[in-house]
Every structure is written in structure tokens, then in C-alpha cells.
Amino acid sequence: xxxxxxxxxxxxxxxxxxxxxxxxxxxxxxxxxxxxxxxxxxxxxxxxxxxxxxxxxxxxxxxxxxxxxxxxxxxxxxxxxxxxxxxxxxxxxxxxxxxxxxxxxxxxxxxxx
Length: 113
Ligand SMILES: [Ca+2]
Ligand SMILES: [Ca+2]
Known about the structure:
By secondary structure, this protein is of the alpha+beta class. Helix content is 19%, strand content 29%.
């Protein structure tokens, strides 16, 4: 993962811009937006990020891949849902768009609503 644009958007070299599915981080002109970006950078920059890319809409109207990102837990090696982590850390809220295949309800009871 090469560049974090904001808390919910980042660039992958050779692939393109990725928008995390069904979550929304604050905009970059707010302190919370900068904090969300900093959080995403700390977790994602230079790391191997596994992407589950939406195969319904494929790309959104801004030309971004819509995806759930998974990162490897350094201790256990198991995959952690970064979309969920962003929400559970308070840096984003769930916004369930119906035009993609993802359902935040599948990410765990804490996000069910
Ligand atoms: Ca946003
Ligand atoms: Ca959805």
C-alpha cells in the first residue's frame, strides 16, 4: 500500500485508488479527518493489504475500487478487517451502501444495526 488519501481512501501502486466499502471517515479539512488519515497510515503504509474488491459495482462513480481491506495481525498472522477496525477505533462510521456486495452486519455484532 503506497499512499493514504484520507481515512477511507488510499492508493495501491499498479492497481489504483481504493475506497473502503460501507464506511465513511471525516473529511480532511477537519481534525477528525486528519486523525483518521494518520490512523490509516499507521496501519497500512508499506504493509501488505489484502483486498476483497466488490464485484457488483466494480468501481464507484469516482473511478475507485470499492473494497474491504484486510491486514495481517502481526502477532497471530490472522487477517483483520480494516474497514471494521476503522469504525471500532472511532475513525469512521458505518454507511451501508446497497449497491455493493458488502454488508457491515457480517463484520461482527458490534456493527450490526
Ligand atoms: Ca469520507
Ligand atoms: Ca453494502
